[in-house]
Amino acid sequence: MRVVVAADNAGVDLKNLVRDQLRADERVSEVIDLGAASVDDDTAYPHFGLAAAEKIANGEADRGILVCGTGIGMAISANKVTGIRATVAHDSYSAERSIKSNNCQIITFGARVIGPELAKKITHEWIGYTFDPTSASAAKVARITEYETQAAC
Ligand SMILES: O=C(CO)[C@H](O)COP(=O)(O)O
């Protein structure tokens, strides 16, 4: 699995922790870090969120973890990219369902909301989940994709 990570300056320290954990995880073949590189980079969160989501939409990554102050701005930004499903996930159950129910490619964390150990635990668990395209959830997700496709015409 190829995972893209990104954060604004509010989330850079947590992003780096998660990135390093992912790099040590044998289930992850590649980790793409789009920045920010340091807290001194004041590039606003949509630039990172959109760029990361485009990596997935373009097929250059499979999943993403995005971090800002709350996780909300990153989720909103990523969801603007066609085909992307992103959500804040600050608990284990939501992270699990974001894959199994919603086939989300991206979860987001708020560095001002979640502690580093919980974020790392959720990340570890999240890597292990897969969406079942034969599940009852598949038709529900397909309806979202159908709407998105029609809206683009
Ligand atoms: O959390 C953020 C966006 O959701 C971001 O890190 C801070 O945004 P701001 O409150 O607009 O500065």
Automatic annotation (TrEMBL):
It catalyses: D-erythrulose 4-phosphate = D-erythrose 4-phosphate. It comes from the Bacteria. Keywords: Isomerase. The keyword Transmembrane does not apply. One of its GO terms (biological process) is cellular response to carbohydrate stimulus. GO terms for molecular function: intramolecular oxidoreductase activity, interconverting aldoses and ketoses. Its EC number is 5.3.1.34. Pfam families: LacAB_rpiB. InterPro entries: Rib-5-P_Isoase_Actino (IPR011860), RpiB_LacA_LacB (IPR003500), RpiB_LacA_LacB_sf (IPR036569), SPI_LacAB/RpiB (IPR051812). Pathway: Carbohydrate metabolism; D-threitol degradation; Carbohydrate metabolism; erythritol degradation. NCBIfam families: PRK05571.1, RPI_actino, rpiB_lacA_lacB. Belongs to the LacAB/RpiB family. This is D-erythrulose 4-phosphate isomerase.
